[in-house]
Predict the structure.
Amino acid sequence: MNRATRRELLFGGAVLAAAMASSRTRAGARLDKLADAMANGRFVTYQPTAITAINGQLTSASDDNIRADLAVLKPHFDSLVTYSAISGAERVPDIARELGFKAVVVGVWSITDETEIANAIATVERNRAIVAGLSLGNETILGQRGSWGDIAYRIGQVRARLPGVPLATTEPFAQYLDQSDARSTLAMMDFLLVNIHPIFENWFRSAKAPNWADFVVRVSQRLAQAFPGPVLIKETGVPSGPAGSGFDEDMQHDFWRALETQMPRSNARAFSYFSAFDAPWRASDASPTPGAHPEEAHWGFFTETRAPKKVIADMPA
């Protein structure tokens, strides 16, 4: 299926266009905080360094751990995108507000976890001055942990509890573009939160940083042309390791400097730096895509001990 056909399949048709226009009308001024942070702020995608998986069970992050993480990030970033609202991560917006961050997009990992949903609603209610949006589910479709209908149900349920809060979910771009049954759920969303990873494309090794960045820009443009709300890239980039997989800090650095040049931020389309800190445990964590993924340990701008990498060294404060 060619690109034009895929886009028409998912986004074409007057019914869908009308439904999405209705969603934008419902959103109205709700998107102002998100749009302002996208255009004038600097997002980073963040999970507390204290949260790791041991024998399949998550450890917890304390307020002190989160505060220490955010103190390292604050000179460089003023907005956050989180992954979950359990294991202490639900406290991130509270502490970010205390430290003067501009905006937080709150993440929910599992749309079937009632405790996490309740935590997310509570943290939004406590922090309405800083919460710019809520993402219900992280790669639910890719990981086969639910359906588009399940996501739509949660969006409707949470919208009833949190009127005025922009809602979305997070998936890789292909899930939005390739699956026709996504259309009704997309019509309910107020903004698009998307993962665009050039390293998983088969041409990656034969290209250079400007080409990697150009791919991200082109995909985001295609999404922005099709979806009439803000498009925020939650994940992209090049990991800094491991060397055995052909990655290094120079590649990571060069990608981000290229993307900054090629994709100026706006209130309609922007990116979040991915990610705040390395997570060594992720290399052996369960993945929705087959095979080993040692690169998952090395996405951070800082190591797991909060040491800066080359990519952050020449980033203006």
User: Anything to note?
Assistant: The beta strands are 43-46, 53-54, 57-58, 79-82, 103-108, 131-138, 167-172, 192-195, 231-235, 269-273. Residues 3-313 form a domain with the TIM Barrel fold (CATH 3.20.20.80). The chain has one domain: 3-313.
